[in-house]
Amino acid sequence: MGRMLPVGDAARALGVSVDTLRRWERSGRIATERDSANRRVVDEDEIARLGGHVVHHVDASLSARNRFEGVVISVEVTGVIAQVEMESGGNHIVSVITRDAVEELGLVPGVRAVATVKATSVMVARL
After folding, report:
1. What are the CA-CA distances from residue 48 to residues 45, 89, 120 (Å)?
2. Which CATH class is domain 64-116?
């Protein structure tokens, strides 16, 4: 049994609305439970079964300006490295990471992910 997630987080991990998740529950497509406060929760394993992906260990202490939540649009693996492209609110983000990281995170097109940008220097020019 995996970690239990609130309905809102589960819906986000599946890329659907809370209303859709509730319809899925009524139709038997997804199983939910109630926590000790009688709130509806979804097992992380149930989300994975439906092809969703939960982003783990996002450092909330970082500025929101440094985090871009979005959807993976392509993954190209070459040897031990991979190029991952994401779309996030109209931004196109490209990252080069290890093949191991891609496999560990389950990054494939369509998966929701978060890109954290950290740079020692960024140059910006006015057009």
Report:
1. 5, 24, 36
2. mainly beta
Q: What is the pTM of this model?
A: 0.49
Q: Tell me, what DSSP letter sits at residue 55?
A: P
Residue type, 40: R
Strand partners, 87: 71, 92
Work out the number of other CB atoms within 10 angstroms of the CB of residue 33. 12
Q: Where are the domains of the chain?
A: 4-49, 64-116
Average pLDDT over the chain reads: 84
**End-to-end Cα spacing for the chain:** 53
Distance from C-alpha of 33 to C-alpha of 41, rounded to nearest angstrom: 5
Q: Which of 27, 54, 48, 66 is nearest to 113 (CA)?
A: 54
Domain 4-49 indexed as CATH 2.60.120.650:
no
Residue 108 confidence (pLDDT): 92
Contact 33/41 with Cβ under 8 angstroms? yes
pLDDT digits (tens, 9 = 90+) for 46-86: 888 888 766 555 555 555 567 788 899 999 999 999 999 99
